[in-house]
Amino acid sequence: MLSGKIAFVDLDGKGTEQRGSHPAIILKYFSRGDLAIVIPLTSNLEVLEKFPCTHLIRANEKNGLEKDSVAQLFQIKCCHRSRFSLHEGKIRILGEISHEEQKIINDVIKSEFQFS
Questions:
Q1: Tens of pLDDT, residues 77-88
Q2: How much is the pTM?
Q3: Which of 22, 34, 28, 21 lies closest to 4 in space, CA to CA?
Q4: Which ranges of the chain have pLDDT less than 70?
Q5: Which pLDDT value is given to residue 16?
Q6: By percentage, how much of the chain surpasses pLDDT 70?
Q7: Could you tell me the CATH number of the domain that includes residue 104?
Q8: What are 8's strand-pairing partners?
Q9: d(C-alpha 99, C-alpha 57), whole Å
Q10: CB 90: neighbour CB atoms within 10 A?
Q11: In this structure, which of 2, 43, 88, 102 has its CB flanked by the most CB atoms within 10 Å?
Q12: CA 43, 48, 52, 58 torsion: positive or negative?
């Protein structure tokens, strides 16, 4: 199961969308189509104040991040497996977020992305 894992993904955003190779949290992986829903991360902590729907992830041994990073929930994307860094044919995992962080992120997504 890849939910909550962090992996590098190559994003091709335009304008203020995230682009380039960045770590991202995998929300859901659909093996049937080799697709994943991801939350891009950035080490630019100013994003916390500039944009809504963000969450600070402190770098630690478990998540494998080198720097504190911001989960940009407002930039959730669907990506094909070919966009991930691979190792021996499998998605190369840096680490994973804690269950507490996963719950916070899920709660923000549920409250911010309600459609009427």
A1: 999 999 998 888
A2: 0.90
A3: 28
A4: 13-17, 19, 116
A5: 65
A6: 92
A7: 2.30.30.110
A8: 23
A9: 12
A10: 9
A11: 2
A12: positive
Other beta carbons less than 10 A from residue 26's beta carbon: 23
Number of other residues whose CB lies within 10 A of the CB of residue 30 = 11
- How far, in Å, CA of 77 to CA of 24, rounded? 10
Spatial neighbors of 116 by CB under 8 A, at least 6 apart, are none
> Which ranges constitute the DSSP H helices of the chain?
47-50, 99-112
For residue 18, is it within any domain? yes
Q: What is the pLDDT of residue 15?
A: 65
> How many CB atoms are closer than 10 A to CB 61?
7
> How many domains, in total, are found in the chain?
1
Residue 78 has a pLDDT of 93
Give residue for tokens 């080799």. 34
Q: Phi first, then psi: what are they for 41, rounded to 5°?
A: -110, 150
